[in-house]
Amino acid sequence: MGSNSNNSTRAKCTDLQMPFQYSLYATTYALIFIPGLLANSVALWVLCRFISKKNKAIIFMINLSVADLAHVLSLPLRIYYYINHHWPFQRALCLLCFYLKYLNMYASICFLTCISLQRCFFLLKPFKARDWKRRYDVGISAAIWVVVGTACLPLPILRNADLANNTESCFADLGLQHISMASSIGMVTVAEIGGFVLPVVIITCCTWKTRKSLKEFQVPSQNTEERKKAWRMVLMCAVVFIVCFTPYHLNFPFFMMVKQHVFSNCSFIKSTLYLHIIFLCLANLNCCLDPVVYYFMTSEFCDQFSEHGSLVLQSCVRCKDSNLEIHQRKEDLQTISLEFLDDSKTI
To answer: Which residue intervals define the domain G-protein coupled receptors family 1 profile in the entry (predicted)?
Structure first.
């Protein structure tokens, strides 16, 4: 009897209705969409077209920008759903949007880790950097997409069963398919170790080593400036990782245990579910914070953006000047014509 009572209490707490999540998700995605779309589109344009040097983690930045854009482009559908509470599109599109969210999260984690690791390695081993080939970065990036893409597949699959029974629901309203405790532990372990623990250890070590290198080495001023740029980039990768991904992954094991009805304390269950919603919104901010890595930490990006941005502005100014000149000439011609007519009437 007591066991049944505990199970019913857990079910009630786990299936709590939290209406605030709709307005929170809609607001968060609306605030992220325009800045994320513009920043990552411009970043991808500059990185692909105007940066000839494909070292200094540029290939990883391009892939990071692609991962962010893929998620950002799905945000209008998410905003529509959280405002209208209705999914009129195909089931496959819902699963695709759901998949892109987690693909972006873990691909971003991997590419931020690669950026931090490569900048640190090239700084400490400059002679190795000269022999490094661009195809190595391309191969690493391709391997990341394959591994992360495969690892994220179970996440939409676990939601697919509920979507088949409720075709008008999507995203947060989809129930999590019940899986065995062993499968749940395995999934959480892979996500936490591969997607959080290992990257945070690598990024922390890179940050520490880069900072230590900046303090210890007495080198020419030009090399010192290069070390400072590397330090700022590695530090920015660490900040993005800590702000966006650390809270979510600290809460994720407890969220999965709540879904497996491990806990019976209703207050703890409520807190875990509330924090999951908030931390998931925080994780989406990486789409806006990632461009900071290339805007402010890469000298080539700033130089090329300033150069080509100034060219665009100059062309706009020239167009305006030419239009004003044409308008002025038209006015002068009209004035001359009127004077000529007046003179002819006088004659």
So the answer is: 39-294
How does pLDDT run across 221-277, given as a tens digit for each residue?
Answer: 556 666 777 788 888 889 999 999 999 999 999 988 888 878 878 888 888 989 999
Contact 167, 91 (CB under 8 A): yes
Contacts 24+ apart (CB under 8 A), 197-203: 199/109, 199/110, 199/112, 199/113, 199/241, 200/241, 200/246, 202/113, 202/116, 202/117, 203/112, 203/113, 203/116, 203/234, 203/237, 203/238, 203/241
Tell whether 171 and 227 lie within a shared domain: yes
Q: Mind giving me the DSSP string for 121-151? A: HHHH-HHHHHH--HHHHHHHHHHHHHHHHHH
What are the tens digits of pLDDT across the range 61-91?
899 999 999 999 999 999 999 998 888 888 8
How many structural domains comprise the chain?
A: 2
Quick one: 338 and 280 in the same domain?
no
CATH of the domain at 126: 1.20.1070.10
Distance CA 168, CA 84 (A): 11
Q: Are residues 114 and 172 in the same domain?
A: yes
